[in-house]
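RECORD TYPE: inverse folding
INPUT: structure tokens
STRUCTURE:
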């Protein structure tokens, strides 16, 4: 006889949390995975086990009866499993990070976090997509933007220097660039997300729908190469253009103070910042960013 312990434990956690989203966070799976497990259990029992409410879910009569049958057993199993674990080790900490930030800045520093907080089980989800922290089993995300994320808490980490560059001939033949808005008179070159020009111009008070037009590249070195070929202006981190600026194949198109609100932010739900493991990670990464803000 097959006993669906995996689905039964998921059912137990959903009942206790009163929300599939919160159960997904606790079990570190997606909300879709939780829904699938509950559907499988409902098919097995031949009846619905939950009803949706305004704030989450509640068991049906059949679900309440099942919960009463299994609650004590799973509570005892959890007690045994957690008996010798420190508080921080009771759950894994999942952080979503853009690949470029993960490899260029975060990865070399993770060993220090592991040494300082051995009880925290840290998992790095390196993906360029924008995760949904309200529905996915992810505690924090490190995002590049202006820090305005409705419904989420954001902590500023750093604002690495980015510069506008173009080929000397392009800049010589084109209109003068005296302020950020003047860049819109030129073709703009983008990375894959097409966000940097929009956010930079917005932070400078020059928001425009034209900011998303132009060629895009999934590699920053290709982006710089396109600028060298005179295909448009590129907004890049200074480290990627330094050698070409020295050789004269690129020229800075604009000097000025980089808007510090356009930077990297640690983003999460308030509960994630309040949890003990979350606090340890927040304190550590803010200290690291203050000590060494530049991207290598």
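DESIGNED SEQUENCE:
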């Amino acid at each position: 006889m097959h006993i669906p312990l995996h689905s039964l434990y998921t059912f137990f956690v959903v009942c206790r949390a009163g929300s599939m989203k919160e159960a997904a966070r606790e079990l570190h799976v997606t909300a879709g995975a939780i829904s699938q497990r509950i559907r499988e259990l409902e098919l097995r029992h031949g009846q619905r086990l939950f009803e949706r409410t305004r704030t989450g879910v509640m068991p049906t009569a059949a679900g309440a009866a099942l919960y009463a049958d299994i609650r004590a057993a799973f509570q005892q199993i959890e007690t045994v499993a957690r008996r010798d674990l420190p508080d921080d080790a009771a759950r894994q900490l999942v952080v979503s990070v853009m690949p470029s930030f993960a490899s260029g800045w975060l990865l070399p520093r993770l060993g220090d976090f592991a040494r300082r907080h051995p009880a925290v089980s840290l998992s790095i989800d390196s993906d360029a997509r924008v995760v949904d922290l309200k529905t996915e089993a992810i505690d924090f995300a490190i995002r590049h933007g202006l820090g305005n994320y409705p419904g989420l808490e954001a902590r500023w980490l750093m604002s690495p220097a980015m510069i506008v560059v173009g080929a000397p001939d392009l800049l010589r033949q084109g209109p003068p660039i005296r302020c950020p808005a003047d860049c819109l008179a030129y073709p703009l070159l983008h990375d894959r997300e097409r966000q940097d020009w929009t956010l930079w111009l917005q932070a400078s008070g020059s928001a425009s729908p034209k900011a998303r037009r132009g060629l895009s590249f999934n590699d920053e070195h290709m982006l710089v190469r396109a600028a060298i070929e005179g295909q448009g202006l590129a907004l890049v981190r200074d480290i990627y253009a330094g050698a070409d600026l020295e050789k004269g194949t690129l020229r800075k198109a604009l000097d000025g103070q980089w808007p510090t609100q356009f930077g990297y932010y640690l983003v999460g739900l308030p509960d994630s910042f309040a949890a003990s493991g979350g606090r340890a990670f927040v304190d550590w990464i803010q200290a690291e960013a203050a000590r060494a803000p530049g991207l290598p």
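NOTES: The longest strand covers residues 92-97.
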